[in-house]
Design goal:
alpha+beta, five-stranded antiparallel β-sheet, 11 helices, 23 strands, about 25% strand
Length: about 450
């Protein structure tokens, strides 16, 4: 066990004069294990586990299983997420009780926990743009959103200042800002070594830069939601105080029950591990009271070409309720499906962001035949009555290792490999053998 830095100990004794001993003891305990279930992918094994009070589909587990060796995890049936960070759901429900369509930006989104959470909560007609500035983390974000399978999520790879042409466009902007990671000290021993007062100040300044631009992106009546996984006042209270002092913003208190154990700050709420069954987390909401609303003027995509209805016929057998979508082809020939009601906003975004991906990847046309993309297997819009084979756990894991276990009486043609009714991968029967189209870079290596 790596000892806590002395300046951090002094900081927490100042913040928690009456309970700092209980706080330090909590940091030496095993962290709780939690996950969040997918609303549309059933996992019966977790039905009787302890619920997380502030997240409808959040669950505590009695012990940590090997998620890597659970096919349901790879099917996107649940997301392994720290419990305190799921407080974003309670904030969202409090800020948007009316259920109207929303334009949502998760500005610092990787690895995707809060993006998948928000995607599960959005009302019909809404969409989410998940952004990440670091390219390697952006790829992880894309992977997690693809496995989650919603067709109303877009992704982008930009710095916050690149969004300046979208001021006043978003109903909700979530800023889960990069922080000093004090809330990870129980889960990640290395985080203790990386911490320093200098890094805290550096993080607070970086967060301030992000928030300065982020606040302008919110539409009048919309909400800026700021959160960190840390405890100190420079990163949390200081930035929240600055937001509250902005003329166009108003602090929005959240009706979070006292029974949840959160500490209410002047502007925001703090989770501590000795009071909450979770890690360190800070959350504050601010309502936009003034400013101009962005005027949406859509133009045709420059990098996507729409496939005419007659030519799009090969896509029909693969897409549930295909008439609700428009089909577009990328410059490389990849077909993407995009909900009709989201096209105008997607085109507007595309004129302002260079590194943007919209629509769900369906596959590629080879001759007159559509070759399904690996990502399409996990989409909620994937046709439910496609040919499929149900696998036992051992065979499912072998497929996820990109092997070809024996599957008797496999029909010819494309079919889905499933485990407990959950889609895992595309197989193609060739008579006396089959090909496994699970991507090599996704495969299990254990």
């Amino acid at each position: 066990m790596i000892e806590l830095p002395l300046p951090f100990q002094q900081q927490m004794e100042s913040l928690l004069p009456d309970t700092f001993q209980a706080f330090f003891e909590a940091l030496e305990e095993a962290p709780p294990v939690s996950l969040r279930l997918h609303p549309h992918k059933t996992v019966a094994a977790f039905e009787n586990t302890e619920p997380i009070p502030w997240c409808a589909l959040g669950r505590y587990l009695p012990q940590r299983p090997s998620f890597t060796l659970d096919p349901r995890f790879h099917a996107g049936a649940y997301y392994v997420q720290e419990a305190s960070s799921m407080l974003v759901e309670a904030a969202f429900r409090a800020c948007f009780p009316e259920g109207r369509p929303l334009r949502v930006l998760d500005l610092c989104a990787a690895p995707g926990g809060k993006s998948t959470l928000l995607a599960s909560l959005l009302p019909e007609g809404s969409w989410l743009l998940a952004n990440e500035v670091i390219r390697s983390r952006y790829q992880i974000l894309r992977y997690n959103l693809q496995k989650w399978g919603y067709n109303r999520t877009f992704t982008s790879n930009h710095d916050v200042e690149d969004f300046s042409k979208l001021n006043g466009f978003f109903d909700l902007v979530l800023v889960d800002a990069p922080c000093s990671g004090e809330g990870l000290f129980r889960k990640d021993q290395a985080a203790r070594q990386e911490w320093s007062p200098e890094n805290v100040n550096l993080c607070a300044a970086r967060q301030g830069r992000i928030l300065k631009s982020a606040k302008d992106l919110v539409a009048p009546g919309g909400v800026l939601l700021y959160c960190t996984c840390t405890y100190n006042q420079a990163e949390n209270d200081g930035n929240a105080q600055w937001l509250a002092e902005q003329a166009e913003l108003e602090y929005a208190p959240l009706p979070l029950p006292a029974s949840w154990g959160l500490e209410q700050r002047t502007h925001g709420y703090q989770a501590y591990p000795h009071r909450v069954k979770g890690e360190g987390f800070f959350l504050a909401a601010f309502r936009k009271t003034a400013g101009a609303t962005a005027k949406v003027k859509a133009r045709p995509f420059q990098r996507l070409q729409e496939i005419k209805a007659k030519e799009a016929a090969p896509a029909q057998p693969w897409v549930e309720q295909a008439d609700q979508f428009r089909i577009f082809a990328s410059e490389k020939g990849t077909w993407r499906v995009l909900r009709r009601e989201l096209v105008e906003d997607a085109q507007f975004l595309a004129t302002r962001l260079k590194r943007l991906e919209v629509g769900s990847i369906l596959g590629e046309l080879k001759g007159k035949q559509l070759i399904p993309a690996p990502e399409w297997a996990f989409q909620l819009s994937c046709k439910s009555d496609l040919p499929a084979v149900e696998l036992d756990e051992a065979s499912a894991l072998e497929v996820l290792r990109k092997n070809t276990p024996s599957i008797p009486d496999l029909p010819k043609g494309w079919l889905l490999a499933r485990y407990q009714g959950l889609n895992l991968a595309w197989l193609k029967g060739l008579g006396n053998r089959y090909n496994n189209y699970y991507p090599k870079h996704w495969r299990i290596r254990m």
